[in-house]
Specification:
Length: 335
């Protein structure tokens, strides 16, 4: 078995020195059939979870992702993140698709469902396990909360309790990825240079949950590779999670997409609009008014004469004039 020996950051590119093997990644790309695309072709995506209808915050992100892709003459793909089955709600997928269509946010290719790619996730998880880059963990949230009652960022980092336990496979367990002290850097197109010490700021993170569900961090990396995604436009609430994903990309030998994290919309209390904060579903009866208001929130400064224009006219103008300069270094926008 190959063991991870060291992790070195060189020119913002993470490489891995595997004992006796020289410096290289796991080179697993040939295992998975990536979509065939031109090397310089822009491919973006929007990836909602089917836990309810789209609300204004998620439509805001979808619109930004769509406009960025179309402005760069690229493809815009739609992925349904439906792995977290306990949270999925019946009818949500249909509702999401209808809302996107109502706003003329038409996607390319067929809708990609995570639940149809379980074999890919499990295969690569097995590869990581065989290379001794993961370990089983039976710690519960409750036990960790009791151990670290002070809910600070430092205490949210897993302390490696199970790292050297070698738990048997027949016990209920999660799978964690081993991390080592290293600095990961990436340049976000809006938020600037992001630098994280993975071990200190994140620790060994979960790839597969105790209930058998593949973790978001792991699935999204594989999904982006399989779909050929090379530009990711999403909410700034996921900015802190990106170093975990770039770590996995380098470990698996996948290219790292270009990232652009747009601000999230927050309510008058400062909370992000979400299903957890009971954000209401998008009203599809006045799509042109809602679209105009979203362009204002996105700081696109649509001219007054477009107020009342059709959805297609608004989108044509927005694609042509799309500019993110006024969103730079902004992580939240209030309603």
């Amino acid at each position: 078995m190959r063991r991870l020996k060291s992790i070195v950051l060189i020119s913002l590119i993470l490489t891995f020195s595997l004992k006796g093997e020289g410096t290289k990644s796991l080179s697993l790309m040939a295992i998975l059939p990536m979509q065939s695309v031109k090397h310089d072709a822009y491919i973006g995506r929007f990836a909602p979870s089917p836990t309810g209808p789209l609300h204004l915050g998620s439509l805001f992100t979808a619109l930004a992702s769509f406009l960025h892709a179309r402005h760069h003459h690229g493809k815009w793909l739609l992925r349904v993140d439906d792995l977290d089955t306990p949270r999925n709600k019946e009818g949500s997928v249909s509702s999401i698709l209808k809302t996107l269509e109502a706003f003329a946010l038409h996607w390319d290719n067929n809708v990609y469902y995570q639940s149809q790619h379980l074999d890919s996730y499990h295969h690569l998880l097995s590869e990581l396990e065989q290379n001794q880059l993961t370990y089983r963990c039976n710690c519960s949230r409750k036990s960790l909360a009791e151990m670290f009652p002070d809910d600070t960022p430092k205490n949210n980092i897993y302390p490696g309790i199970c790292r050297n336990k070698s738990l048997p496979s027949d016990t209920q367990h999660a799978i964690r990825l081993k991390t080592e002290p290293c600095t990961l850097c990436f340049q976000d197109e809006l938020q600037g240079l992001i630098s994280h010490d993975l071990a200190k700021q994140h620790g060994d993170f979960i790839l597969k949950r105790k209930d058998g569900v593949i973790a978001y961090q792991f699935a999204v990396v594989i999904d982006d590779y399989l779909q050929g995604v090379n530009h990711v436009v999403r909410g700034s609430d996921l900015l802190e999670e990106t170093p975990k994903q770039t770590f996995l990309q380098q470990l698996l030998g996948f290219s790292t997409p270009t990232y652009l994290h747009v601000p999230v919309i927050v309510d008058h209390h400062g909370y992000k609009l979400s299903k957890q904060t009971l954000a209401t579903a998008v009203d599809t009866k006045s799509t042109n008014k809602s679209l105009f208001d979203l362009l204002v929130l996105l700081k696109q400064n649509p001219p007054d004469e477009l107020d009342g224009a059709s959805v297609s006219e608004l989108l044509d103008w927005a694609i042509m004039h799309w500019c993110t300069d006024e969103l730079a270094l902004c992580s939240a926008i209030s309603l």
